[in-house]
Amino acid sequence: MKNPTTKRNRWEDHFSRQAKKENFPARSVYKLKEIQHKYRLIKKGDKILDLGCYPGSWLLYAAELTGKEGLVVGVDRKPVSINIPSHVKIYTCDILSIEDEFLQSMGKDFNVVISDMAPPTTGNKFVDAARSSDLSRAALSVARKVLTPGGSFLCKIFQGEDFKTFSDLVKSIFNKHKIFKPQSSRKASREIYIIGFGKN
Ligand SMILES: C[S@@+](CC[C@H](N)C(=O)[O-])C[C@H]1O[C@@H](n2cnc3c(N)ncnc32)[C@H](O)[C@@H]1O
To answer: Distance (Å, rounded) from C-alpha 36 to C-alpha 105?
Structure first.
């Protein structure tokens, strides 16, 4: 007989419990915290665009880092329902079909574009990696349009066939680039983060 708690136990790990305790809606906040502690990506007063922001952990943490002098704009195709500080704005839309006009209405001259977008997984690593690659390329395309010169880009991608090409593309657009696998990322996950510092 199957143990009904097995699946829940798998997900209810240390980081999920910690997120609940600290009032973040998802454990993913610790990935951004690790990246922030290592690279100091987000600064007080910054203007941040958060792509794939639902349920809102990165949004809340980014808003803490920028403070009220800054602005955090979040986008997801799912509506976000958490309470947000006054310097956070949220739009519900699909990044794969976003129009330039709509993008412009969100503002420009962002200091950092962060993307934690992920496709619904199918279990087929080739399909999942291809869909993740599409999302990463869409995020990079948005970043190129809205980042201020010298701005930075953080993007999740599932490692697959397109990973090296995408990583090289980021390298060619930014002054410096890094690849980072947070400890809080599940070991079995093929996700990894690419960071581009200083848009050319
Ligand atoms: C891992 S979750 C993000 C978690 C978030 N960083 C947080 O800390 O709360 C990935 C998100 O990407 C979003 N997403 C996937 N494809 C998208 C698309 N085409 N346009 C906008 N959002 C998308 C999903 O709806 C999902 O909410």
So the answer is: 28
Q: Give the E-state strand segments of 21-95 in sequence order.
A: 47-51, 71-76, 88-92
- Which region among 18-22, 68-72, 186-190 has the lowest average model confidence (pLDDT)? 186-190
CATH label of the domain that carries residue 148: 3.40.50.150
Does the structure show a pLDDT above 50 at 36? Answer: yes
Indicate the average pLDDT of the chain.
Answer: 94
The answer, yes or no, to whether any atom of ligand 1 lies below 6 A from the CB of 94, is yes
Both tokens of 82, joined, read 């958490």
Which residue range(s) make up the domain with 118? 27-199
In a domain, 119, yes or no: yes
pLDDT at residue 187 is higher than 60: yes
Tokens 């977008």 belong to 117
- State the closest ligand 1 atom to the C-alpha of 98, by its place in the atom list counted from 1: 20
